[in-house]
Amino acid sequence: MSQFTFTIDTECSESWARAGTIQTPHGTIQTPIFMPVGTQATVKSVSPEELREVGAQIILSNTYHLMLRPGSELIDSFGGLHAFMRWDGPILTDSGGFQVWSLGHLRKLSEEGVLFKSHLDGSPQFLTPESVMRIEAELGSDIILPLDICAPFPCTPKEAREAMERTHRWEERALVAKERYRPEQTLFGIVQGAFEPELRQESARVIGSMPFPGLSIGGLSVGEPKTKMWEMLRATTPALPREKPRHLLGVGSPEDLVECVGLGMDMFDCVLPTRVARHGGLFTRDGRVNIKSARFKRATGPIEEGCDCYTCRNYSAAYVHHLIRAEEQLYYRLGTIHNLRFMLRLAADLRASILDGSYPVFRETFLARYQPASETVREQQREKWKAARERQS
Questions:
Q1: What digits encode the pLDDT tens for the residues 214-223?
Q2: Is 94 a catalytic residue?
């Protein structure tokens, strides 16, 4: 029997923002919430104990990567992902659909599923809606996602519809297949539709009417301008059932969190905070700073005044600057802790503002101060990370 429930605690009268409470077999989640990404059963460079300290309530792991290495059967033999990685809180596993999509030249779609080559050794792999349910049952996560198709940006309306309709058919199959496995797991549906407002609304109605206890919004943050993503959410949210939690897949910059909470989203995940930390990008209320910059060489204070993270409470910005310039391993831990704490504190502040009725003011104040990375910088980073992934494959 599923132990999953979602309760809306408060709603904002001037936006679609809401504060909620989710119950899962491994604990309670208070929304809005940011989920650190532990792709390969670990959030890079930090321990489960440190995740608890920064305020993580739930983490996300990756079905695609874990099925290839070390294998879901092995993880199952350890008692599931919670026991294997020693994390006792809730876990959400994605379906692997986005990762398969990102392989591009290494995959082939059919109605049955997706055939692709492992990026590790080139071995042929075949995922179906049914096999994904089996793999995620072996992983034992609390919230699981079905196999879906993420349409590229840009794409034609015809391509967008074909991907959406096949995703809908696959999700129907996933609902049937899940009945054979763990009843305590909760299967979210995924809304697609690419960048066609009418398709987004159609997908929201179709998937929202199926017996999924929660919904993930997929196919966004795949290279489009942020304004386009926000436009799609404005079209999608009114068609979503109010009583189900909404997870915005793969989105998690500070400005996205603040903006998209007001567009009705409850849960967020993204590799961005951990990834940019590893390259020297650290979040502050004024925007992202590059800790490699010479201006931090003699900075006696913390990375950000008033930050309560372990790094800022114990180390000067000058020391953190020294660590990354010297390419010391400790930097990756300290930088990651700072960015994760920033995101989780931001999520908690958003929740508090919704509860006390001040979200519109909070949003306006935060966005007026925070300077996001430019579209040009974001595109350069995407190309750099894409090239690095292609070298690995």
A1: 999 999 999 9
A2: yes
